[in-house]
């Protein structure tokens, strides 16, 4: 689909077409921010496993491309919140924008697309964002989208020589799933 207001193109990301760009975006976040609490840059082997897990679990990877160049400007996805069966209707999402394209509203567009995908799936009841508590931009984005702060875990991460607090933001999708089941 194409977003006519900005001529950006939403795409379903694939390993073949987007793994290299997603890897670069991830590694920039690892090396230069607390958006990811990783220390080491990821490798292409990590991307193989990441895309395999997304495909196996029917988890979307939504991207925005520049339609002129095909450059991936950012992406959003979700994964399991916790590995216990009763959490099956709750997902933890992530959104990343290439450092050259931040501050242009792409995170908002990606999150809106991800939320709409969740609403249409009938398999998601709650979206959880785990955000470094000092990441004011991401917190403001989530609040504008209707997420509410549901808790902070103080000093659970350590990166760049300091303790990091992890804030949780939640968006409830009241109408989904239509008929949840145990088991």
Describe the structure.
With 183 residues, this protein is of the alpha+beta class. The protein has one domain (2-172): Gcn5-related N-acetyltransferase (GNAT) (Aminopeptidase), CATH 3.40.630.30. The chain contains four helices and eight strands; from the N terminus they run ββααβββαβαββ. The protein has helices spanning 15-32, 44-56, 106-121, 136-144, and strands at residues 2-3, 8-12, 61-65, 72-80, 90-97, 126-132, 148-159, 162-172. An eight-stranded mixed β-sheet has the order 1-2-3-4-5-6-8-7, with helices on both faces. β5 (90-97), α3 (106-121) and β6 (126-132) form a beta-alpha-beta unit. α1 (15-32) crosses α2 (44-56). The radius of gyration is 16 Å and the shape is globular. The model is unreliable at 1-5 (pLDDT under 50).
Provide the descriptors you would attach to this structure in a database record.
183 residues; Aminopeptidase; 31% helix; globular; disordered N terminus
Task: Lay out the secondary structure.
Layout lengths: L1 E2 L4 E5 L2 H18 L11 H13 L4 E5 L6 E9 L9 E8 L8 H16 L4 E7 L3 H9 L3 E12 L2 E11 L11
Parallel strand pairs: 5-6
Antiparallel strand pairs: 1-2, 2-3, 3-4, 4-5, 6-8, 7-8
């Amino acid at each position: 689909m194409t977003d006519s207001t900005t001529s950006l193109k939403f795409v379903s990301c694939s390993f073949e077409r987007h793994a290299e760009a997603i890897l670069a975006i991830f590694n920039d976040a690892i090396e230069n921010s607390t958006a990811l609490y990783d220390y080491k840059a990821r490798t292409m082997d990590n991307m193989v496993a990441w895309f395999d897990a997304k495909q196996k679990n029917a988890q979307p990877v939504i991207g925005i491309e520049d339609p002129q160049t095909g450059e991936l400007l950012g992406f959003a996805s979700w994964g399991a919140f916790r590995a216990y069966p009763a959490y099956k209707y709750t997902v933890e999402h992530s959104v990343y924008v290439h450092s050259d394209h931040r501050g242009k509203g792409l995170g908002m567009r990606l999150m809106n697309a991800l939320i709409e995908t969740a609403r249409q799936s009938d398999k998601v009841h709650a979206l959880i964002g785990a955000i470094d508590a000092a990441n004011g931009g991401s917190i403001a984005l989530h609040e504008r989208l209707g997420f509410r702060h549901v808790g902070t875990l103080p000093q659970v991460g350590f990166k760049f020589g300091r303790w990091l607090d992890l804030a949780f933001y939640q968006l409830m999708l009241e109408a989904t799933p239509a008929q949840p089941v145990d088991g």
